[in-house]
Write a structure and sequence with these properties.
Elements: H1 7-13, E1 15-26, H2 40-52, H3 66-73, E2 92-95, H4 98-113, E3 125-143, H5 153-156, H6 163-175, E4 179-183, E5 191-195, E6 208-216, E7 220-224, E8 230-234, E9 239-240, E10 243-244
Parallel strand pairs: 3-4
Antiparallel strand pairs: 1-3, 2-5, 3-6, 4-5, 6-7, 7-8, 9-10
Helix pairs in contact: 1-6
């Protein structure tokens, strides 16, 4: 395994980073609370009660749209994330390409589908997702997909072990990085983004929002729009010997 660059080394690699990234979220147009409330007043009150149970919004995130703020609001998951440990603040993940963002989403939908012993109604899911873009403008960025880090690529794209990338993420935080590009573990030609500090956002709201229809089976994941554009992914593309790699499995 290659050596993990130190925070001091990484600090010398930081440079301006500008660009556009895409992130997929559940469509929020119809709040789930509307289904269990009798009118708008009851729904608003229920939303207020639910919001009061959530972690406080970090002060530096208060001007941001909830779409940009939410990852920083919640603690990391039990196993952390690819570049964040269980003890570090959440990271805003996105992708440089729409196709990469949707491919990453497809993988996690299949992992979710794999949870129950009997798939039942989850065997065929029809839903919608929102794909939104955000502009970045930081003086403290990094590109882990560049030639400087070419020897790290096989380790950074490992699907079943995040120990290396999590330590690298911690070192990037210590170095003062606000955001960085990194190679996708699910798309050989794709590039993902990690935002460690909300100062990296050029604006407080998404640049654009798009509604995509979703159809998920146990073998295929299809995303499509009314204008005819679509992306379709096959589950076996992301498996190795029939297994979908992930550290929590």
């Amino acid at each position: 395994m290659p050596a993990i660059p130190t925070a001091n080394t990484l600090a010398s690699y930081l440079s301006p980073l500008v660009g556009l990234a895409w992130r997929v979220v559940e469509t929020q147009e119809t709040a789930a609370t509307r289904m269990i409330s009798r009118n708008a007043e009851e729904q608003n009150r229920l939303e207020q009660l639910l919001d009061a149970t959530k972690p406080p919004v970090p002060a530096e995130c208060s001007p941001l749209s909830y779409l940009l703020m939410t990852p920083f609001r919640y603690p990391p998951l039990q196993y952390g994330s690819r570049y964040g440990s269980q003890w570090e603040r959440g990271i805003f993940y996105a992708a440089k390409e729409q196709e990469t963002a949707l491919a990453e989403t497809a993988v996690y939908l299949w992992l979710f589908q794999k949870g129950p012993k009997i798939t039942g109604p989850l065997a065929d899911i029809t839903d919608c997702r929102t794909l939104f873009s955000v502009r970045l403008c930081s003086q403290k960025g990094c590109d882990l997909g560049s030639e400087l880090f070419a020897n790290l690529r096989p380790t950074l794209t490992a699907t079943q072990d995040w120990s290396f990338s999590q330590q690298l993420g911690s070192n990037l935080r210590e170095a003062g990085a606000e955001c960085f590009w990194f190679p996708s573990a699910r798309s050989a030609t794709g590039t993902n983004l990690a935002v460690l500090n909300p100062n990296a956002f050029a604006n407080t709201h998404p640049d654009t929002e798009q509604l995509w229809n979703l159809r998920l089976t146990e073998d295929l994941c299809w995303f499509g729009r009314a204008d005819g554009r679509y992306f379709e992914f096959s589950k076996d593309t992301f498996e190795r010997e029939g297994v979908m790699g992930h550290p929590c499995l």
